[in-house]
Amino acid sequence: MSLPTLRIRRSRINLGGAVFGRVTRATVCLASLAAASLLSLTPLAAWGAAAPATIDPEASCTTGGCHADTKAKPKLHGPVAGDACQGCHEPKGKEHNFAKISDIPALCTKCHDKVDGAANVHPPAQGDCLVCHDPHGSKVAGMLKADDQKALCFSCHEDAILKGEYQHGPAAVGACSVCHNPHSSAQEKLLRSPGNELCATCHADLVKDMTSGANVHEPVRKGCVSCHNPHSGPKPKMLPGSTQELCAKCHEKQVKAAKESAVPHGPAAEDGGCTKCHTPHGSNNRPLLKAAQTDLCVGCHDKPLEAGKTKLTNMKQLLADNKEWHGPIRDGGCTGCHEAHGGANFRLLKQPYPATFYSAYQPDNYALCFTCHEPMMAKEEFTKTLTGFRDGDRNMHFLHVNKADRGRTCRACHEVHASTHPRHIRESVPYGNWSLPINFAITEQGGSCQPGCHAAKTYDRSKKN
Ligand code: HEC
Ligand code: HEC
Ligand code: HEC
Ligand code: HEC
Ligand code: HEC
Ligand code: HEC
Ligand code: HEC
Ligand code: HEC
Ligand code: HEC
Ligand code: HEC
Ligand code: HEC
Ligand code: HEC
Ligand code: HEC
Fold it and tell me: Predicted confidence band at 341 (pLDDT cuts at 50, 70, 90)?
C-alpha cells in the first residue's frame, strides 16, 4: 500500500463520553489504550526511516486520502468513530506496520464483557466475532456484516422458519435478537427469557389473561409455542394448521366425533368451529367454554335455526317463557342429554330416544330418560311404587307408552326442556299441523286432562281398584 500522505492527528482520538455508551468496561480500556497510543504516536517521524517522508503529521488515519473507507459506513464502532484506531491496531516497532489482528475474541473483550458466560453458547460466538461483526462499522446497527439480521442469520440457518404465509411481526422484520441472544443464553435456543415470559415481554396483558384464569389449557401452561410458531406459520396467528387440525393433534376423539358422526353439530363440524365454543387459552368456565354452558348454547339457539328440513325451537325464548326448567338444565347444562360435538342419535342425544310421536315400546328406545329416571316406570301394568302417574294401582305410563306399535312417546305429554306446568306436562303437543291442547291440571292425589285425544279424564292414586 502506498501511503504518501498518511496523517494522524492525535487530537482526533476522541474519548468523549457519548462514545462509551453501553460498554461496561470500555471507559477503562479506552482510557488506558489511549494513553498508550499517545505515547507511541508522537511524533510519526520518530517511527524511523521506513515511514513515508510525506506523511502529514496533522492528518488522521482516515484523512489525507488514507483509509477513508474505514469510516465510510453509516454506523461506526465507538472507537472508530472516535478515531481511536490504535485501540486495536498497535504499530509494531517504529514502522507504519500493523500486524494482522489474530487475538479475537480477546481483543474485543478488552473493552466488552465476555459473551460466552451463559450455559448455552452460540457456536459462532465462541470464537471469531468477526463472522458476524465488522470491526469498523456497518450499514446497520450492531456493526453487522450483512444488510440486516435476517440476512446474517440466514447465511447459516435455513430460512424455512420465515417461509410461512403468516408471519410474526418481530421475526418478519428481522428483529431476531429481540428474542434470541446472538451470543449465549441460560435458556435453550438462546432465548432471552424462559417459556412464556418471553412472549410476555411484548404481550404482557394477554399472557396474564391467558394464564391466570380458573382453568388454563394445559399446553398454554407448557408454552405458547406448543401451538404458535414464534416465527411464521401456514395459518393465521402463526398456527401450524387449521383449528381442527391443531386440536386434532391432541384431541382426536372430539374432532372425529365432529367430522364423522351420523348426526353432526354444525358449529363443531365446520373448520374453525372448535373455537366457537372453546377458548384455546383459558377460561373461567369448564371445560374451557367461552361462556357458561346454557348461555353458550342459547347464544346460537336464540332463533329458529334450521336442521335439515326442520326449524329448531328457539331455546332462548322457550327457557325465558317457561320458568319450570328440567332438572339438568336447572343445574346448568345441556350436555346432560346432548352431545356437543356430534352423535349417533336423533337431535344429538346422548342415548336413544324416539324421533316420532308414536313408537313401539322398547325400554332401550327410551334409554335417554331411563339413565336418570326409573327404567321400570312403563314396564308393569300395575304398580304402587314405580310412578305417580297411576289410577289406583293402574300404571298410566304403561297404558300410554307400552304398546306394540303406537305407544305414545314421552313428548306426547312432557316438555323436556322447560314448562309452565308441574311435572313438565306440556301445554300442547304438535300433532301434524295442529297444536293439540292437553289442558292438564294437577290435584293432590292425581290429575286431570282434557286433551285433543279423548274426553276429560282423571287419575287418582288413592283410588281402590
Ligand atoms: C475495535 C478494533 C478496531 C478498531 C478500533 C479499528 N480497527 Fe481496523 N481492523 C480491526 C480488525 C479486527 C481488522 C481485521 C483484522 C485483520 O484481518 O487483520 C481490521 C482491519 C483493518 C484494516 C485492514 C483492511 C481491512 O479493512 O480489513 C485497516 C486498513 C484498518 N483496519 C484500519 C483501521 C483504521 C484506519 C481505524 C481507525 C479509524 C481502525 N482500523 C480501527 C479492528 C479495529
Ligand atoms: C477499544 C475498546 C473497544 C474494543 C477493543 C472493541 N470495542 Fe466494540 N465498542 C466499543 C465502544 C466504545 C462501543 C460503543 C458503545 C455504545 O455506543 O454503546 C462499542 C460498541 C460495539 C458494538 C455495538 C454497536 C452498536 O451499533 O450497537 C459492537 C457490536 C461491538 N462494539 C463489537 C466489538 C467487537 C466484535 C470487537 C472486537 C473486534 C470490539 N467491539 C472491540 C469499544 C470497543
Ligand atoms: C452469530 C453472529 C454473532 C457473533 C458470532 C457475535 N455477535 Fe455480537 N451481536 C450479534 C448481533 C445480531 C447483535 C445484536 C445487534 C442488535 O441487536 O442490533 C450483536 C451485538 C453485540 C454487541 C452489542 C451489545 C449487545 O450485547 O447487544 C456487542 C458488544 C457484541 N455483539 C460483541 C460481540 C463479540 C465480542 C463477539 C465475539 C465474542 C460477538 N459479538 C460475536 C451477532 C453476533
Ligand atoms: C456463522 C454461522 C451462523 C450464523 C451467522 C448464525 N448462526 Fe445460529 N447457529 C449456528 C450453529 C453452527 C449453531 C449450532 C448448530 C445448530 O443447532 O443448528 C447455531 C445455533 C443456533 C440456535 C440454537 C438452535 C438450537 O436448536 O438449539 C439459534 C436459536 C440460533 N443459532 C439463532 C441464530 C440467530 C438469531 C442468528 C442471527 C443473529 C444466527 N443464529 C446466526 C451458526 C450460525
Ligand atoms: C418473538 C420471539 C422470536 C423472534 C423474533 C425470533 N425467534 Fe427464533 N425462536 C423463538 C423461540 C421461542 C424458539 C424456540 C421454539 C421452540 O422451542 O419450539 C425459536 C427457535 C429458533 C431457532 C431454532 C430452530 C427452531 O426452529 O426451533 C432458530 C434457528 C431461530 N429461532 C432463528 C431465528 C431467526 C433467524 C430469527 C429472525 C429472523 C428469529 N429466530 C426470530 C423466538 C423468536
Ligand atoms: C418483541 C415483541 C414481541 C414478542 C417478544 C412476542 N411478540 Fe407476538 N407480536 C408482536 C407484534 C408486534 C405483533 C403484531 C401486532 C399485533 O398483531 O398485535 C405480534 C403478534 C402476535 C400474534 C398474532 C396476533 C394476531 O392477531 O394476528 C400472536 C399469536 C403472537 N404475537 C404470539 C406471540 C408468542 C406466542 C410469543 C412468544 C413466543 C410472542 N408473540 C412474542 C410482538 C411480539
Ligand atoms: C392449544 C394451542 C394454543 C396455545 C398453547 C396458545 N394459543 Fe394462542 N391461539 C390459539 C388458537 C387456535 C388461536 C385462534 C383463536 C380463534 O381462531 O378464535 C389463538 C389466538 C391467539 C392470539 C390472537 C388473539 C386472540 O386472542 O384470538 C394471540 C395473540 C395468541 N393466541 C397468543 C397466545 C399466547 C401469548 C399464548 C401463550 C400464553 C398462546 N396464544 C397459547 C391456540 C393456542
Ligand atoms: C399440544 C396438545 C394440545 C393441543 C394442540 C390442544 N390441546 Fe386441548 N388439552 C390438551 C391437554 C394435555 C389437556 C388436559 C388433559 C385433558 O383433559 O385431556 C387439554 C384439555 C382440553 C380441554 C378440556 C379442559 C377441561 O377443563 O377438561 C378442552 C375443552 C380442550 N383441551 C380443547 C382444545 C381445543 C379446542 C384445541 C384446539 C384449539 C386444543 N384443545 C388443542 C392438549 C392439547
Ligand atoms: C355457534 C353456534 C351454536 C352453538 C354455540 C350451539 N349450537 Fe346447536 N346448532 C347450531 C346450528 C347452526 C344448528 C343447526 C343444525 C346444524 O347445523 O347442525 C344446531 C343444531 C343443534 C341441535 C339439533 C341437531 C340436529 O341435527 O337435530 C341440537 C340438539 C343442538 N344444536 C344443541 C346444542 C347444544 C346442547 C349446544 C350447547 C352445548 C349448542 N347446540 C350450541 C349452532 C350452535
Ligand atoms: C357447540 C359448542 C362446542 C363446539 C363447537 C366444540 N365443543 Fe368441545 N365441548 C363443548 C361442551 C359443551 C363440552 C362439555 C361436554 C360435557 O360436559 O359433556 C365440550 C368438551 C370438550 C372437551 C373435553 C372432553 C370432553 O369430550 O368432554 C374437549 C377436549 C373438547 N370439547 C374439544 C373440542 C374440539 C377439538 C372441538 C372442535 C372439533 C370442539 N370441542 C368443539 C362444546 C363444544
Ligand atoms: C333432559 C334431557 C335434555 C336436556 C338437559 C336438554 N335437552 Fe335439548 N332435547 C332433548 C330431547 C329429548 C330433545 C328432542 C325433543 C323432541 O323432539 O321432542 C331435545 C331437542 C333439542 C333441540 C331441538 C329442538 C327442536 O325444535 O326439535 C334443541 C335445539 C335443543 N334440544 C337444545 C337444548 C339446549 C340448548 C339445552 C340446554 C339449555 C338442552 N337442549 C337441554 C333433551 C334434552
Ligand atoms: C341427566 C339426567 C336426566 C335425564 C336424561 C332426564 N331427566 Fe327428567 N329429571 C331429571 C332431574 C334431575 C329432574 C328433577 C327432579 C327433582 O326436581 O326432584 C327431572 C325431572 C323430570 C320430570 C318431573 C318430575 C317431577 O317430579 O316434577 C319429568 C316429567 C321428567 N324429568 C321427564 C324426563 C323425560 C321424559 C326424559 C327423557 C326425554 C328425562 N326426564 C330425562 C334428570 C333427568
Ligand atoms: C300420556 C301422558 C304421558 C306420557 C306419554 C308420559 N308421561 Fe310421564 N307423566 C305423566 C303425568 C300426567 C305425570 C305426573 C304424575 C303425577 O305426579 O301426578 C308424569 C310423571 C312422570 C315422571 C315423574 C315421576 C313419576 O313417574 O311420577 C317422570 C320421570 C315421567 N313422567 C317420565 C316419563 C317418561 C320417561 C315418559 C316416556 C317413556 C313419559 N313420562 C311418558 C304423563 C305422561
Answer: very high
Q: Which amino acid type is present at position 247?
A: C
Q: Report whether 92 contacts 86 (CB < 8 A).
A: no
According to the model, what pLDDT value does residue 101 have? 85
- Integer Cα distance of 354 and 314 in angstroms: 21
Among the bound ligands, name the one nearest to the CA of residue 172: 5
pLDDT per residue as tens digits for the range 186-218 = 999 999 999 999 999 999 999 999 998 899 999
AA identity, residue 242 = S
144, 132 Cβ separation under 8 angstroms: yes
Instruction: For 125-142, write each residue's pLDDT tens digit.
Output: 988 899 999 999 999 999
Ligand 8: lining residues by beta carbon, under 6 Å? 215, 217-219, 226-227, 243, 246-247, 249-251, 274-275, 278, 280, 286-288
Residues in Cβ contact with 341 at an 8 Å cutoff, skipping those fewer than 6 apart: 254, 257, 258, 261, 265, 268
Do 232 and 238 meet the contact criterion of CB atoms below 8 Å apart? yes
What is the distance between the terminal CA atoms of the chain, rounded to a whole angstrom? Answer: 128
Q: Which three cell numbers stand for residue 230?
A: 414464534
